[in-house]
Amino acid sequence: MIIYLTRHGETELNKQHKFYGAMDVDLDDKGYEQAQELADKLADCQFQVVISSTLKRAVATTEVILNNRHNIPWIKDPRLNEMDFGAWEGADADQIEAEFPVEWQAWLDDTFGYVPPKAEGFKNFKHRVFSSLDEIVSKYGNQSILIVAHQGVLRLIHQYFDSDSSFYDDNFKAGYYSVINTNNGELSFESNL
């Protein structure tokens, strides 16, 4: 199995360093440029299926990548949506710390265990993404696939295949892709960053 991992292009909230996991925002102009750069880089890559998040920023990036590839099946899977940050959606770290000082500190102390107000929480997020990956591996285990998703989702995908990796080991930049190859029973991870 070969998996091409791509992150959606930039959004206005990226530039503002906002938490916006579940917020359904569009790409900005630079995001569309990054999506086109990504499409150009992936032009010679042969994948049999594309799986993306259902959020606008991932869908728009996928549309640009698939512009001339109408014969490739595209599956939109909400389990590949970014983590829902609940009451913190649309705010930056300073705003969150000012409005939720106790909760913010609790999250900094235990990012993977503490659940912010009205948020999904990391444990549920990880379970959701891993359930999608179980299905992907089962259905497409002998194919090359493209996944277009979000920073947190892509980090979890890497962890799914390499349990020794840390969630924060990888930084998936917009406009670039990484490849996980599990052929021949061996794991390799490459990036064009």
From TrEMBL:
Chain sites annotated for binding substrate: R7, H8, G9, E10, T11, E12, L13, N14, R57
InterPro entries for the chain: His_Pase_superF_clade-1 (IPR013078), His_PPase_superfam (IPR029033), PG/BPGM_mutase_AS (IPR001345), Phosphogly_mut1 (IPR005952), Ribazole_CobC (IPR017578)
The keyword Secreted belongs to this UniProt entry's keyword annotation: no
UniProtKB keywords: Glycolysis, Isomerase
One Pfam assignment: His_Phos_1
PROSITE patterns in the record: PG_MUTASE
Assigned protein family: Belongs to the phosphoglycerate mutase family. BPG-dependent PGAM subfamily.
Name by which UniProt lists this protein: Alpha-ribazole phosphatase
Entry annotation: catalytic residues: H8 (tele-phosphohistidine intermediate), E82 (proton donor/acceptor)
Keyword Ligase among UniProt keywords: no
GO MF term list: alpha-ribazole phosphatase activity; intramolecular phosphotransferase activity
Record GO biological process: cobalamin biosynthetic process; glycolytic process
EC numbers, comma separated: 3.1.3.73
Source organism (scientific name): Lentilactobacillus kosonis
